[in-house]
């Protein structure tokens, strides 16, 4: 059974990784479509968790909005769709409230339903849309630089998850937050921080600097890696909390051998906006860029 599961996971990775890499390099509509697919599936799983936990939502509308959000970000960048963002967001919330009036009524918990729907869209799709923002960050000039910059948090997320798993299995003795995620250990968490910091330094030195003309000092690269690992682990714990509330082990079984989309992307939801923030705040990492 273990070998069969490993074979399924490997086969999926062989197909998925090249697709992701191609979309990251191509950018534009290809990346937006990939994010729309991931966001829509993530929203579907999130609303399933909410339903299992006895929480109401405008599920269908939320999934549609989650799919449209990355496409809207792409259209906004290209100039094909450029309304005032805050005003447009407010209009969407107003429309959701009108839908709640029609579909949920007094007995359908409309206050909770609207809040859960809006949060689900922002969590499952809005946070992923930061991948598009990183791909077209002001400091990334050209397709190669943009792709390398976006791959930075993607690589560190995978590194943190992998290091936490293997270090935890080899050395784990003390549970991190057993009430939320029984399998995670303090040793695994610390190991993830250390390994991610080292990989961040290597990537900044050997990929970003020569390939994207973006240079980080050693200290900033290490701090970046540590903070991304912290974000990844917090994202993992938050999704575990959602699953605990719903009483399920996996968010779904849509990915062969991996569980659900949320199970694979939980850390990335937190890592992408954290990476964008760190690379954009003028007094954190920008002084190290030249």
List strands and helices in order, with pairings.
Blueprint: H1 2-26, H2 28-52, H3 59-78, H4 85-103, H5 110-126, H6 130-135, H7 143-171, E1 175-177, E2 181-185, H8 186-212, H9 218-246, H10 261-280
Antiparallel strand pairs: 1-2
Question: What is the gist of this entry?
Answer:
This protein has 290 residues and is mostly helical.
Strand order of the largest sheet: 1-2
The run of helices and strands is HHHHHHHEEHHH
> How would you sum up the major sheet?
2 strands, antiparallel
Q: How many H/I helical runs? A: 10
What does this structure look like?
- With 290 residues, the protein is mainly α.
- It has 2 domains: 118 residues, no CATH class; 150 residues, no CATH class.
- Helix content is 75%, strand content 3%.
- The chain is built from 10 helices and 2 strands, in the order αααααααββααα.
Notable traits:
single chain; 290 residues; mainly alpha; two-stranded antiparallel ribbon; disordered C terminus
């Amino acid at each position: 059974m273990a070998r069969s599961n490993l074979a399924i996971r490997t086969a999926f990775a062989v197909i998925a990784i090249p697709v992701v890499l191609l979309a990251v390099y191509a950018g534009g509509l290809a990346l937006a479509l990939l994010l729309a697919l991931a966001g829509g599936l993530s929203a579907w799983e999130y609303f399933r968790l909410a339903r299992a936990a006895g929480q109401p939502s405008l599920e269908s509308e939320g999934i549609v909005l989650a799919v449209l959000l990355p496409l809207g970000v792409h259209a906004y960048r290209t100039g094909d769709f450029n309304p005032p963002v805050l005003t447009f967001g407010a209009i969407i919330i107003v429309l959701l409230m009108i839908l709640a009036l029609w579909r949920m009524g007094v007995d359908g918990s409309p206050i909770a339903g609207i809040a859960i729907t809006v949060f689900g869209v922002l969590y499952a799709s809005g946070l992923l849309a930061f991948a598009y923002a990183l791909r077209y960050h002001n400091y990334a000039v050209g397709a190669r630089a943009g792709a390398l910059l976006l791959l930075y948090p993607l690589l560190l997320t995978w590194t943190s998850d992998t290091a936490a798993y293997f270090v935890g299995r080899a050395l784990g003795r003390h549970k991190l937050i057993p009430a939320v995620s029984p399998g995670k250990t303090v040793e695994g968490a610390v190991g993830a921080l250390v390994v991610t910091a080292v990989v961040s330094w290597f990537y900044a030195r050997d990929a970003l600097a020569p390939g994207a003309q973006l240079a980080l000092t050693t200290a900033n690269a290490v701090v970046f890696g540590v903070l991304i690992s912290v974000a990844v682990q917090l994202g993992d714990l938050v999704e575990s909390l959602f699953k605990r509330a719903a009483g399920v082990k996996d968010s779904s079984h849509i990915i062969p051998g991996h569980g659900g989309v949320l199970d694979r992307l939980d850390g990335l939801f937190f890592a992408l906006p954290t990476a964008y923030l760190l690379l954009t705040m003028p007094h954190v990492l920008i002084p190290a860029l030249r």
